[in-house]
Design a protein that fits this description.
CATH topology of the largest domain: Rossmann fold
Number of domains: 2
Distance between the termini: 61 Å
Structural class: alpha/beta
CATH architecture of the largest domain: 3-Layer(aba) Sandwich
CATH superfamily of the largest domain: Vaccinia Virus protein VP39
Strand content: 15-25%
Order of helices and strands: EEHEHEHEHEHEHHHEEHEEEHHEHHEEH
Helix content: 25-40%
Number of strands: 15
Shape: globular
Oligomer: single chain
Radius of gyration: 21 Å
Length: 379
């Protein structure tokens, strides 16, 4: 066994040579950043709803998430730690004693666990090894009104379009391997989540979404009501992309019309259905940034860099332009990205960096205006 210090807790996990689903008890040290962000998101959510909350970790592994939630988040009345692995249950119980907390430990299939506790949880954490798709219907059915779900997907090769068929099978959505494929993947995951919630007459408001290393993560506020569900579905649509001139756009609705690229006339490729509405909430993320000062987080600086970029993405349209890719297509050297952004702002457009790619910019400017800004930055 090895001892791990994370946040305000200390746990013991089996010494395993590499992260694998075949480990006796699953623990991924690379996901500490994910858990740090989750602690902040859960605390801000708890203050927002202003009540004691009950949380569930459906794939608890070592128990680190549930233990951290109990130790580090004010207002957590109860935390469930569920894992079907009997060795994990033993590990959770041992680590709970080490940290003087008492999560409710269960050993069930994740879907059965959620279905057996409908209407109980204020926060459900769905963080499996691989795709969350098989468990989202159960999570959508179980979550109560004015609550939050955290969803992690590590099957990014499908969501990003490297392998199209697995994404179609799991998420009923077509990905595209573009320069902003990670954002498309996040939006496919968001759309899939929203459509599962809508089936149970529950609406979705996405508070924070990010793509980091090998996974995608989103936090969604859930409110009950057929009208709210219908309003959420208005944000389902398709992203349109031209592989010839790099134009991109989006349309709302479930039935895209065949369209030609307005820039070069080529037939557009389509990704979706997916979420084309906001995936960042500036108010929520701003509160997370403030809350970070009150928490012990080993990766606080890295967390703050992510949040400070995500907050600038709020309100921006889907997709982004990779300045280096555009310059390559134009046959020019890439100017400083800040200079391109200054030109766009000077022309009255909104523009921001994006956490999805260091050379990307999100803007409400069209392709022609972005190219003009690049040319202007070369003078």
């Amino acid at each position: 066994m090895i001892t791990v210090n994370e946040g305000s807790v200390k746990i013991q996990v089996p010494d395993f040579s590499r992260v694998s689903s075949k480990a006796p008890v699953f623990y991924n040290p690379d996901m500490e950043f994910n858990r740090d962000v989750s602690v902040l998101a859960l605390q801000v959510f708890q203050r927002m709803v202003d009540r004691e909350i009950k949380v569930a970790d459906t794939f608890a592994g070592s128990g680190i998430r549930a233990i951290r939630y109990l130790r580090e988040v004010d207002g957590v009345a109860e935390a469930w730690a569920n894992d079907i692995n009997p060795l994990a249950v033993e590990c959770i119980e041992r680590n709970s004693r080490m940290n003087s907390v008492s999560p409710l430990v269960s050993r069930e299939d994740a879907g059965v666990f959620l279905r057996s506790n409908q209407g109980v949880f204020d926060f459900i954490d769905v963080d499996p090894f691989g795709t969350p798709a098989p468990f989202m219907d159960s999570a959508a059915a179980a979550i109560r009104n004015r609550s939050m779900i955290g969803v992690t997907a590590t099957d990014t090769s499908g969501l990003c379009g490297t392998y199209v068929k697995p994404c179609l099978r799991k998420y009923s959505s077509r990905p595209l391997k573009t320069e902003y494929c990670h954002e498309i993947g996040v939006r496919i995951l968001a759309g899939f989540t929203a459509m599962n919630l809508a089936r149970y007459r529950k609406g979705s408001e996405f508070l924070l979404s990010h793509s980091t290393r090998h996974y995608m993560r989103l936090y969604v506020m859930v409110r009950r009501g057929a009208r709210r569900a219908d309003e959420s579905l208005k944000n389902i649509g398709f992203i349109l992309h031209c592989f010839s001139c790099l134009f991109h756009g989006h349309v709302n609705g479930f039935a895209p019309i065949n369209m030609k690229c307005p820039s070069c006339g080529r037939e557009l490729d389509v990704a979706g259905p997916l979420w084309v509405g906001d995936i960042q909430d500036a108010g929520f993320i701003g509160s997370m940034i403030e809350e970070a000062e009150n928490k012990k987080l080993n990766q606080k600086e890295k967390v703050l860099r992510l949040l400070q970029t995500c907050i600038r993405e709020a309100g921006m349209p889907p997709g982004f332009y990779d300045v280096h890719e555009l310059c390559s297509s134009m046959g020019v050297s890439a100017p400083p990205i800040d200079s391109v952004m200054d030109h766009l702002r000077g022309d009255g457009f909104r523009v921001s960096r994006t956490h999805f790619k260091p050379t990307g910019i999100k803007t409400d400017a069209d392709l022609g205006a972005v190219k003009d800004a690049i040319k202007g930055s070369l003078i």
